[in-house]
Specification:
Blueprint lengths: L1 E4 L7 H6 L5 E5 L7 H7 L2 E3 L7 H22 L9 H4 L6 H19 L5 E5 L3 H13 L3 E4 L2 H37 L11 E9 L18 H6 L7 E8 L3 H8 L6 E4 L6 H17 L9 E2 L2 E2 L1 H9 L7 H4 L1 H11 L1 E8 L4 H13 L5 E4 L26 E4 L2 H10 L7 E3 L23 E5 L7 H13 L4 E5 L6 H7 L11 E3 L5 H5 L4 E4 L4 H7 L4 E4 L17 E4 L6 H8 L3 H16 L7 H4 L6
Helix pairs in contact: 5-6, 6-11, 7-9, 13-14, 19-21
Amino acid sequence: MRIHLFSSDQPCQKIIDNAECGPVNYLYFKNSCLSTSAQLDKRNFNLMDSHRLSESESEDILNDYINIIGSMSIINGTHREWWSTDIASKNRILSPMQGALNQLILSIRVIDNHEHDRLNLYIFGVSYPVITVIKKYCEQKKIIVEVDRIFFLRLSSRFSLKLKSWNIFLRDMLSSLLRVARSRISYGKVKVIKKGEPVFLIKSWVFPSSFSSNNSYQDPYCGNLASYLTNYLENKTKVVTISQGFNERDYCYKKMKDINGRIIIPVESFLSYSDVFFGILSTIWYQVTYSIKIPNSAFVTKIDLRPMLYELVKSTGRLIRFGDYLYYYLGRRLAKNFALKGCVMSYEGNHWEKMFILGLRDINSEIKIIGYHHSAIPQAAAGVFLSECEVGLTPSPNRIVTTGLRSCNILKRYSHFPHNKIQPGCALAHQYLYDFDFLPRRKHSDFRVLVALEGVLEACELLSYVIHQSKQLPLIEFTVRSHPALPIEVLLRELSIDYKSLPANIKFSNVIKVVDDISRCNVLLYWGTATSVEALMMGVPLICFNRGDTLSFDPLFNFSEFKWSVDTNTPILPILDEIKNMPDQHYTEKSFAGNKYVKEYLTKASKENIRLFLAE
């Protein structure tokens, strides 16, 4: 066996010419989603099957992964800047580790399956940090490895990617400064609460759709929690929601001033220009003078990752999200200026959460912080899973409240966070689902597929798949619903696709409420979004788009009753036909099983589970 490794995700002309003499076996990575595989298959290229990982294999990889980052936290965690780096976050999108693990594990599986075969394997689109591990692994097995332009590849990884990271960091600094300035204009000074007042704090997010015409506000993450809590707190204690906008911030922050019956304030309104200045000095000093340390042992499924870790921390892994880093100063200011009686904040293991907790406890070490995991928990959400060595080290809330029993059990299954402090609560932002009747089966005369996109650029792969399938199925309507944090225009631009070139059977949703889209569809096609859980509760069958990730992005990864799966090379038509032809009784039984499952995932609010959000 001979391995050929390329950082480019497109084969050069020489390899294409070789394909005319016989099949070329290959793997490819990167987000060249549209038609790379189809184009190569036409040229006598053979895509190698790495076979899906079993559940136990994925769990072993997850445990090894969080243990490695835990070991790194032990030796780097004395610097608060560490907690705002991408690699420390274990964020399923921002951390460079999960993408690297995908490339590595899938490549190694193919190599192991064919190491005794007489063939050439071409791997396209593999990053240099991953190449260092594959090269070492193959040399130990005495497999010949050839790396395309390795000198320039190393140079690009060490310097070009580092330059890109600095570019992101500097733009983030400028953006943070502008957000502080613009919040002064759009919202003005904070006048609704005074220094020293008792405050119960809710940290959330805001979208333009959070506001209605009668100046009311619906928290997209915490629902009516603020109203619930006022029934349990002392009269003098004000419930204050601080929120950060994703898009149309100026509009959102102006609307906050006139909200009826609620106090909601932009997070930037509490930050000063001096906070930004000192944050700049601190983060630049850290990145210039400090080198992230690598543990002596870092194995995933007996593969030594230290060469990859070394390259990652030299390039993209040490990137600090400056906007998130400023949450440290936000926490300090809030804890210093107000008598905080407690704090509810989202808990997803993100950079800003750790920095916010550090800031709050820097001033008020006794404050009770409740981390609320407000949505579904896929296996890939490694940021919420703590290794045993991270407990007591990673900045964490006093307790975690989830949306229900199912999500609570997932956390307990994969995380070493004290299990007695993980409690099943309720789905604050999904209570509206209990106001809807179970949807009857829609007729097939106008079969409609609802495509739910996650709010990250990786959703391009699903969108690309949908465009390809829609061209094959002109009689089926595909309604695409984008995430409020990522407009569809951005995804189309990422794919270099113009609206006008799209098939006529692709429609874009223009309704605000997701339930309105769900009620009009026959099936939901999704990747990584919690909309799948909502659709399942309403009795809609699901099709999960599988990108081949090592750790599953599916929020319903441990449910299979009323769910099918496709990947880039799988046509959707046979599954749609299977759903259409399912007998009504069987369809009803499966849909009710899904509804029952979700009711344990997105639990209805009650007096008992609302009290879990109090700092008692």
